[in-house]
Amino acid sequence: MSSEKRIDITQPLWDQNTFVGRFRHFAFISNPLLTFVPEKQLYEARDLYMRYKAGEEPEGTTMSQVVRAKQLYESAFHPDSGELQNVFGRMSFQMPGGCLATGAMLQWYRSATAVVFWQWVNQSFNALVNYTNRNANAPLTTTQMGVAYVSAMTAAMSTALTFKFVIQKRATNPILARFVPFVAVAAANWVNIPLMRQNEILLGLDVTDESGKVIGKSQVAPIKGISQVVTSRIVMCAPGMLLLPVIMERIEPKPWMQRIKRGHILVQTAIVGMFLTFMVPTACALFPQRCKLSIDTMKRFEKENYEEILKNTSGKPPQYVYFNKGL
């Protein structure tokens, strides 16, 4: 390894100040194939990651092995706690999990029972993803997690059923009913994610200077970060949930589609999967992972936290403070 240039294994391999660099990074760690890597291999990757980080990697370790270890570690272990994440909550499972839930919602949208059931399935999946990618420094109580889950379920189901009944009574174009799942999912995201991360707002989030040194806390920073995460999640599912209804409305009357009616769910799931394979890294890359907040904003909206930063920086606060926006 000594003959090869070393990398900072804790940092992304591509420039995170550009959209392309962020896209390549998230495509690297959200590859759906990473879902199927055995736990034994993941722990071996973590061991090599940590040993390389400490400069103690085994003799003969190649750069390709280091990069592969970095990919596996960052795709499967929590960035704050270092714990192995639940496989179904990892970003690498967003494509297979999301395409199954979305395909089902778009296929079975006609009856109220189906709408309620598949919204429940989807929100349960979302709750697991949000919990898996939570900020480990601001843990939720069981009660808070329960309230977040029930609130998101209520928002999704009430939105879906309200729009469904309004469309059935007033809309003349039947394709509008196919968009109900997207409206429900978007509404639920604005409830689920903020509630799952409410302690970041209530207790404040650690913020750093440009060098990464923690200089205080902010309650405005998580509001900005959570808003960006919600926007990204909605963008992530938008193409599949908005374009697929149009596609299906066009191809369902075709003779070949009429012959495989039971296979429509497979067609929809496959198309959603293709959308999500591209949209997961695209949506994650919309905003920098290392988010920044103007110190003037803190001075205006949270004077107590601003005063603490003044104290910790000897009266010379940076122009911006930085924090991890989460996923």
TrEMBL record:
* Entries under InterPro entries matching the protein: Mtc
Pfam families reported in the protein's UniProt record:
SFXNs
Could you list this entry's UniProt keywords, alphabetically sorted: Amino-acid transport, Membrane, Mitochondrion, Transmembrane, Transmembrane helix, Transport
The answer, when asked if Cell wall biogenesis/degradation is one of the entry's keywords, is no
Question: Which interval of the chain is the signal sequence?
Answer: none
- What are its GO cellular component terms? mitochondrial inner membrane
User: Transport among the record's keywords?
Assistant: yes
Note the topology in the membrane. Answer: Multi-pass membrane protein
Q: Where in the cell is it found?
A: Mitochondrion membrane
Q: Which domain of life is it from?
A: Eukaryota
NCBIfam families (UniProt xref)? mtc
Q: Which family does it belong to?
A: Belongs to the sideroflexin family.
Protein name stated in the entry: Sidoreflexin
Q: What is the lineage of its organism?
A: Eukaryota, Metazoa, Ecdysozoa, Arthropoda, Hexapoda
